[in-house]
UniProtKB/TrEMBL annotation:
The keyword Glycoprotein does not apply. PROSITE patterns: GNAT. It comes from Costertonia aggregata. The keyword Glycosyltransferase does not apply. Residues 2-148 form the N-acetyltransferase domain. This is GNAT family N-acetyltransferase. CDD domains: NAT_SF (cd04301). Gene3D superfamilies: 3.40.630.30. GO terms for molecular function: acyltransferase activity, transferring groups other than amino-acyl groups. It comes from the Bacteria. PANTHER family: ACETYLTRANSFERASE, N-ACETYLTRANSFERASE DOMAIN-CONTAINING PROTEIN.
């Protein structure tokens, strides 16, 4: 059975292995201590909202949202920055449950919506579209990095 919790500092230890695996998936070196510090800082400073998925009481996925604003619409919205489901728990509806929890949170906090960016070849696009997400076709995304 899937259970979704909004994470507090009490859940950080449960999220750390998932967050570390997520970062390793994106070619980062494993570092559970740095992951713990990062998550703790985000939660204690109120800089992100994290939902934790449990399947039969086993931590198996998470979604992390960062709040921002639209100057044009004068409304807040969330950036869905991180979504991860452990490989052993995929295709069980956990990703959909996390995405739906993010949507409900957005509605409950009266935010304009949720934005996400994904790789062109990410198979999760089918899930996003099934759940009502619309692909931008009218703009490009650019990124400048101080570290490149």
């Amino acid at each position: 059975m899937i259970k979704i919790l909004q994470a507090t500092d009490e859940h950080i230890e449960l999220i750390v292995p998932l967050f570390d695996s997520y970062r390793v998936f994106y070619k980062q070196k494993p570092d559970k201590e740095a992951a713990k510090m990062f998550l703790n800082e985000r939660i204690t400073k109120g800089e992100s909202v994290i939902f934790l998925a449990l399947f039969d009481d086993v931590p198996c996925g998470f979604i992390q949202l960062y709040s921002t604003f639209s100057s044009v619409s004068l409304q807040p919205f969330y950036i869905l920055n991180d979504l991860f489901v452990d490989a052993n728990h995929r295709n069980k509806g956990i990703g959909a449950a996390l995405l739906n929890s993010a949507k409900v949170h957005c509605e409950n906090t009266n935010c304009k919506g949720l934005a996400l960016e994904t790789a062109i070849d990410n198979p999760a696009q089918k899930l996003y579209e099934k759940l009502g997400w619309k692909r931008d076709s009218h703009c490009f995304h650019y990124f400048w990095s101080h570290f490149d």
